[in-house]
Amino acid sequence: VSTQSTGKWFEKRILVVRSEEERAYVFNESYYVLKRLEKNEYMYMFVNEFGGSDSITFISRYLDDFDNLETEMLYPLLQLAGRNYEVILDTLTKSVANNPGLGKNAMLVLQNINMWCFQADWERWSSLFNKITELPEI
């Protein structure tokens, strides 16, 4: 099977997604190709199609197990979140509250998040940063 025909199949598959289960299937397939074959074009297609839509519920499904999530999966999830920083803030707040230190996933998110998002809800972000500075390893 050629890469071009696979790409066309995948593009069609994205366009016919109707349910959250179908979206999860396509996302997982995109992630598999990204991780195993180191080809990112399918994930780019997925993010381009669904990144602008209301993806909070979808992203939350993966972020529920944030601290155990494969770090590589965070990049596409952050891209999908786009300007929906509330889901990221909620996830980080929960992670900091439930862990004795700042985990690798929380560090990665904080290193890669757009700092302009802090303006939207400075009080909550400030509260999170205060909790982080109280952690023993900081």
Structural write-up:
It is built from 8 helices and no strands. The longest helix has 18 residues, at 20-37. The protein has 138 residues and is mostly helical. It has helices at residues 3-15, 20-37, 41-50, 56-63, 71-81, 85-98, 104-112, 122-133. Helix 5 (71-81) packs parallel to helix 7 (104-112).
Question: Topology of this protein?
Answer:
Blueprint: H1 3-15, H2 20-37, H3 41-50, H4 56-63, H5 71-81, H6 85-98, H7 104-112, H8 122-133
Low-pLDDT ranges: none
Class computed from helices, strands and strand pairing: mainly alpha
What is the tally of helical segments? 8
Mean pLDDT: 85
String of helices and strands: HHHHHHHH
What percent of residues are in strands? under 5%
Assembly status:
single chain
Helix residue percentage? 55-70%
> What characterizes the major β-sheet?
none
Rg from C-alpha positions? Answer: 17 Å
Outline type? elongated
Give the terminus-to-terminus CA distance: 51 Å
| Number of strand segments | 0
Jot down its keywords.
8 helices, 138 residues, elongated, mainly alpha
